[in-house]
Every structure is written in C-alpha cells, then in structure tokens.
Q: What sequence folds into this?
C-alpha cells in the first residue's frame, strides 16, 4: 500500500475500514513481539483483522483455536462465522457438536438466524442425534416461523431433506395438516412425493441407532467363528456364530464412520503374502470379497 503507486502512498492519513482499533493493537503487538494472545471473546474479530491484513500465522492460529474450543453455547455462532470465511476445520468441529446436541441447539435463538443453506446442510446429515425424525421437522417449523413471511417460500426445498420414510403414517398426516404446510401447496406436494418414494437410501439418524463394540477372537486362541457384540448402553452382550462359508479367517477388523465393517485376511507363503479384504453385507448377513493384494518381502 505504501511502497506502490496506490493512492494511499500519497496520503498523510490512511483510514483502514472494517478494522477494530483494539484488534489492530493486538496485531501490532504480535508484529513487534512475536506473541499472540487469543481468547474466545476476541478470536473472531482478531481473525477478521488478520484476514484483512493477510497475516497467515495469525489467521491459522485463530482458526486452530476456534476448532479446539467449540462449545455447545457457541457452536452455531462459530459455524456461521466459519462458513463465511470457509474455515473447514472449524466447520467440521462445529457441525459435529451441532449434530450431537441437535435438540438443545435448535431451541436456542441463534439457531433461527441460520441461512436456509446452512439449515439444510445441518438437517441433511446422518449424524443428527435424534430419536425421532419429527424432531427435525419441529426444528424446521421453528426456523420458518421465526420470520414466516420471508421464509415460508423456502419450506418446499427444506422438506426434501426431511426423512419422511422414518416417520409413522400418523406423523406424516399431522404434518400435512400443519398450518405452515396447508398455507403452501408446494409443501404438501413435496411431502406426498417423499412418502410415495419411500427411498431405502435414507438411513436412520445417529440417535435412532445403537452404538456397539465388536469383539473378535485373536487367531492365537483358535479359528473361532463367533463374534461378540457389546451394547454399552444396556450393558449387554450379543453372541453370533457363523458357518465356515459365511465368515473368513480374519486377522483384523475395523468399522468405518459409515458403519461399514471390513475384515482383513492374511495368507502367508514362502514367497509372498496375500491380503484379502472382506466387507460385511448387513442386509444379507454375509461377508463379501472387497479386494486382494499380494505383497513380497521377508517374513518376520
């Protein structure tokens, strides 16, 4: 600004628009001392100042601080801020907390300040911790009624993200009779189409499922075809036995965030090792081949 041919280089006084004097003082302190003090009450304006002045270290420090200090009381506000500045790590941390505390978050006033795009991103996710899909519908109604005249026309597009296949017929009938739906014919049409499709690809939300731990026997204790499932919520165990054909001799197992179960089978020989990957088919209750890899090397 001062060393080029820009207009500011010829001015005696330069006004930096959109920059808080307190935050500029923090920036100047960092420039001269190399020390940066970050706190929840000033991290957002400090990030904005650093973004304006293109100070990458300060921006990265503020971003990391926000991602590590997301709380239930601040997650929606931080989510909105991170969305404006495309802070992926902060967005991810905020969404995880919003999904896990959906009922509490949707009852707050700041929830109603979300944009329609932000709202649909939140309710479209599998990780919502709700026991009933009607909870999602009630949150949408609360958001619409906060500014009914401006938001009612968004309702049809939002409804396509609600999983009506997870509701009872009584629930959907009550929704079709709701004043905000009856006021907009397009909303009724979207709901009826969703009910008619009954798409099986729409998974239950996280709160509608039970998280369980899978325990499998080590190969050194024999080739057992039994799996042990532990339900930590009910403090119970479920034992399942499989036939020789249904369950491979596996040496390792993992479960992905999408609830897919993979098993690794290792077959050793003098020349090479063969690694076979199997994926558990939930619907058919069988393990299916998912890939094979041959590796060469010294056996240990």
A:
């Amino acid at each position: 600004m001062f060393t080029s041919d820009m207009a500011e280089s010829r001015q005696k006084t330069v006004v930096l628009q959109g920059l808080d004097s307190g935050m500029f003082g923090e920036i100047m302190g960092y420039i001269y001392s190399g020390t940066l003090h970050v706190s929840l009450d000033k991290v957002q304006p400090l990030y904005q100042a650093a973004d304006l002045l293109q100070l990458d270290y300060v921006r990265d420090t503020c971003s990391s601080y926000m991602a590590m200090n997301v709380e239930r009381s601040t997650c929606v506000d931080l989510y909105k801020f991170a969305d404006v500045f495309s802070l992926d790590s902060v967005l991810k941390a905020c969404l995880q907390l919003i999904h896990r505390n959906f009922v509490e978050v949707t009852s707050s006033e700041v929830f109603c300040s979300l944009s329609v795009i932000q709202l649909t991103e939140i309710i479209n996710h599998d990780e919502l911790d709700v026991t009933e899909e009607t909870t999602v519908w009630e949150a949408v109604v609360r958001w619409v009624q906060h500014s009914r005249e401006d938001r009612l026309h968004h309702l049809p597009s939002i409804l396509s993200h609600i999983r009506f296949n997870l509701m009872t017929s009584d629930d959907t009938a009550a929704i079709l009779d709701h004043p905000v739906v009856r006021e907009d014919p397009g909303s009724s049409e979207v709901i009826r189409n969703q009910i008619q499709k009954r798409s099986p690809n729409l998974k239950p939300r996280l709160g509608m499922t039970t998280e369980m731990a899978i325990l499998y026997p080590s190969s050194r204790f024999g080739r057992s075809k039994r799996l042990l499932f532990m339900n930590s919520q009910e403090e119970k165990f479920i034992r399942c036995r499989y036939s020789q054909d249904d369950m491979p001799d596996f040496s390792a197992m993992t479960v992905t965030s999408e609830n897919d179960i993979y098993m690794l089978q290792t077959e050793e020989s003098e020349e090479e090792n063969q690694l076979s990957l199997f994926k558990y088919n939930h619907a058919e209750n069988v393990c299916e081949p998912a890939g094979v890899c041959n590796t060469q090397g010294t056996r240990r």
